[in-house]
Design brief:
alpha+beta; Thiol Ester Dehydrase, Chain A; about 35% strand
Length: about 140
């Protein structure tokens, strides 16, 4: 493990101030669990969490699962993404993303994230993403 929960949280607060107020690293182990506390900025008409907000959660969670394995490599970037929205998240409840790395190569990493409403087992969205890892200089 190159970055533990505390290191990932510090990285989030230092370099991702645009979302640091709504994301928190819950746990790090075989993967990363990231907690999202949506506010009114993240809701769509009807009061449900917006797709772009859930995409952000999945993207950051998978990114952190990769950094957990390779260390702080800020220029690791998303190069491909697929997300399936399966059901409406529970209202007024945090969302959790459980992310893990499926394949880690020298220049590419592939990860997956399952998003669930806190306290619920049903997956509300599932994402698979590919990231380019910059060459070591």
């Amino acid at each position: 493990m190159k970055m533990d929960a505390a290191a990932l949280q510090r990285f989030l607060e230092r370099d991702f101030e645009q979302v640091a107020d709504v994301l928190r690293v819950d746990s790090v182990g075989d993967g990363v669990t990231l907690r999202f506390t949506p506010d009114t900025r993240h809701l769509r008409p009807g009061g449900t969490v917006s797709g772009p907000s859930m995409f952000m959660l999945a993207d950051v969670a998978i990114y952190f699962a990769i950094l957990n394995r390779i260390g702080e490599v800020p220029l690791t970037v998303t190069t491909g993404a697929h997300i399936d929205f399966m059901r409406k998240p529970a209202a007024g409840v945090d969302l959790l993303a459980q992310a893990k790395v499926l394949k880690l190569g020298r220049t590419l990493a592939v990860g997956t994230a399952a998003l669930c409403s806190a306290g619920h087992d049903d997956v509300v969205a599932h994402a698979q993403m590919t990231y380019a890892i910059p060459p070591k200089s």
